Each structure stands twice: as C-alpha cells, then as structure tokens.
C-alpha cells in the first residue's frame, strides 16, 4: 500500500480542513455505492418503491457535490496549498464530480426499473445485469477503499477490472441484440435492460477515473487515457 504523507502545517486547522474533505468525500461515496446497489436490486426484484428511493437519493448526492465543491474552493482560497496538499484538494474536486455522475447513472437504472415494473418484465437480460452489477459494485467499493488508504495498488487493480467490465458489457449487448432480432416483440422491454447495462458500464468508467485520480494524488502521475500496463510501468519508475 502506498501511503500519502500530506504536508504538516503550522495551522492545525489546515490539517482539519483536509481531513474533513476526505471524510465528506467518503461519506458521499458510501451514499452513491448504496444507490447503485439499490438501483440494480430494483430491476431484479421489480421493486418500484426501491427505484423511487434511488431517485430521491439523487437529490442528496447533488447537494453533497455542491457542499464539497464549496469546501474545497474555500480551502484553495484560504490556504493556497502546494505539492501533495494541492493534489489532495484537486483530487477531491475531481472524485466528487465522478461520484455525482455515478449517481446520475444509478438514477437512470432506477428509471428503467420503473419502466419495467409498468410495462412488464423483460424476457432476457437479468442474469447479465446481475453479473455486471456485481462487478461494477466491487469496483466502486475498491475505489473508495483505495482513496481512504491512498492505495495505488488497489487503484491499478480497478483499472484492470474496468477492462473486464467493458468486455462483459459488450458480450451481454451482443447476446441481447441477437435475442431481439429473433423476437422483435421483446424489443422495448429488453431495451430497458440494455440501457441499464449501459449505465453500469459508465459507472465502471467513472470508477476507473477515480482510480486515476488516486494515482495522481499519491504519485503525482497523470495517467488519464493511459493503458494499464503503461500505468504500472510509470508507477514502478516513479
């Protein structure tokens, strides 16, 4: 595990400000993680009430995003941080944005759950949804854990996992397209599942983004749009 040693400050309040940013971010991440879990369950169980809960929770996530942005901006303005402190604040701002977008995707999944509850279950796609949902939920949990511990190794593993999620998503989509061609009557309902799968894939992308922010935070390396093997090489050389 790579531990980030934030600069020590004469002002104890500065240390408190940074720790508060981290705590608030992880709390927001926990809310988003549960939102994703609930959204997938809402489709699997045709649970309209649970889907509505996800929609309501999205308002809380939006408020948390605004609050964290305001807190981070105040730290930048008051403390003018440098080096690892500056990377910490910038990482919080970027991770917050990705978490909010995860929440948006969970909201889309919940809307698909409501549509399926009203129009009738889809004949196919639930197994694929469950598998992809489990994979993505593990990625989100791992990124939050990596941020909490400033763990670069876990962040790199999330980048690996994102490639597996992409492959799993493409396979599921091909199978569902084939099924719809064989049974055109199923198209509208299966499309709801496909849109949910798409949202899960996007959540996986945001989890990888967060993993890249963690690597930047700890190592000072910008690894956006970089293949995983190259990321591992750069970390070893850093």
From TrEMBL:
It is found in: Cytoplasm. GO terms for biological process: intracellular phosphate ion homeostasis; negative regulation of phosphate metabolic process; phosphate ion transport. Residues 25-112, 129-213 form the PhoU domain. InterPro entries: PhoU (IPR028366), PhoU-like_sf (IPR038078), PhoU_dom (IPR026022). The keyword Transport applies. Keywords: Cytoplasm, Phosphate transport, Transport. GO terms for cellular component: cytoplasm. Its main location: cytoplasm. Belongs to the PhoU family. Plays a role in the regulation of phosphate uptake. This is Phosphate-specific transport system accessory protein PhoU.
